[in-house]
Design goal:
Elements: H1 12-26, E1 33-40, E2 46-55, E3 64-70, H2 72-94, E4 98-105, E5 108-114, H3 116-122, H4 126-129, H5 135-138, H6 146-157, E6 162-170, E7 173-185, E8 192-200, H7 202-239, H8 243-274, H9 285-300, H10 322-341
Antiparallel strand pairs: 1-2, 2-3, 4-5, 4-8, 6-7, 7-8
Length: about 350
């Protein structure tokens, strides 16, 4: 290749571009200039390249020197990055949930961008909220949600992914949302930003509230009606002299009592599920069993012995809080069976 002209590797348009770059370089004080082009390899492949051109002698111009760098990997990385950015932009713009991107400035979430769904749900044009504090626009007035919003912001600024049910002001008034905050660190490494995704769950919450009311009403009515049934059954039992009929009536009473107990069990399960500390917290098993035994003994009129045989192995002293519910159910069933057989 020594002694060959650049046109051996470049077409006329690229040669003209390099000549122009050299003329510009001679007229400036720069040490060199970079030109991106495409070169043909010995195998005939076309590869993107960057040529850094500098002058041999700037005053008399004895020639130029070009340092060639293969840009194939860089080009591929750029194309992949652009494809990922295009996919993300498409997802961001077309996601049906309201999405907002914000960065934390002095502890406050300052809006950087938002999608069309956010504008539709909350009723703000992007130009209104870009650069402003997000909480000033979407927190419902007159409701005690400011401390909750500040707490979520603190978690996001600390780099924690958060999920919570929140209440926010929309074009249709205050509504319930499932909020998911996904933080990330920006290029400077000091500033934290993040995405906030708001999924409207107002209708779902309303259905849940209606079902809760219906559930309580049904349990209450069932319990009251069965109380009347059991009372009448007791009165009839006192007047029956036929042993066979009395036996059938006792079976009927037991079934009615079992149905009545379903209401209490349903209420206990609901309370257990809703109790905030219903997780796997350790409990004192002997104390719990002794307390349950006293309750069941009084309810069913039976004696329950909670003493355990002496053993060299230490008994367990802790269990999950769900164990107490299981123990209560076991003791109640056993006591009921004992009373019927006795």
């Amino acid at each position: 290749m020594l002694g060959e002209r650049p046109s051996r590797l470049l077409d006329d348009r690229e040669v003209a571009a390099f000549e122009q770059a050299i003329r510009d370089l001679r007229e400036s004080d720069a040490d060199g200039v970079k030109v991106e082009t495409a070169l043909t390899t010995a195998r005939g492949d076309h590869r993107p390249a960057e040529v850094e051109v500098s002058l041999v002698d700037g005053e008399s111009f004895r020639g130029s020197i070009g340092v060639v760098r293969d840009l194939t990997d860089l080009k591929q990385a750029r194309e992949q990055l652009q494809e990922e950015q295009d996919r993300f932009t498409y997802l961001f713009d077309n996601l049906p949930d309201a999405v907002v991107e914000s960065e934390f400035v002095d502890g406050e979430p300052v809006v950087k961008s938002l999608n069309a769904a956010f504008s539709d749900v909350f009723g703000f044009d992007r130009n209104e909220v870009i650069g402003a504090n997000l909480n000033d626009f979407i927190l419902p007035p007159g409701e005690n949600v400011h401390e909750e919003a500040v707490h979520l912001d603190e978690l996001g600024q600390a780099g924690e992914t958060v999920q919570a049910e929140v209440r926010r002001q929309t074009v249709h008034g205050a509504r319930d949302f499932l909020f998911r905050g996904v933080p990330y660190s920006q290029d400077d490494g000091d500033t934290v930003a993040g995405f906030g995704i708001y999924t409207d769950i107002t209708d779902q919450r309303e259905r849940e509230r209606r079902l809760e009311v219906l559930n309580r009403v049904l349990r209450h009515n069932l319990r009251n009606d069965l109380t009347v049934v059991l009372g009448l059954a007791d009165e009839v039992h006192e007047r029956i002299e036929d042993e066979q009929l009395a036996s059938l009536l006792e079976r009927l009473q037991r079934k009615a009592e079992e149905v009545a107990s379903l209401s209490d069990r349903a209420r206990q399960i609901e309370r257990s599920v809703r109790r905030e500390d219903a997780g796997n917290q350790p409990v004192d098993v002997p104390s719990v069993v002794a307390s349950l035994a006293d309750t069941v003994s009084q309810q069913y009129g039976v004696d329950i012995d909670t003493s355990s045989p002496t053993s060299r192995r230490s008994p367990p002293t802790g269990a999950s809080s769900g164990s107490s519910r299981n123990s209560s159910k076991t003791l109640s069933n056993t006591a009921a069976t004992t009373r019927r057989s006795g």
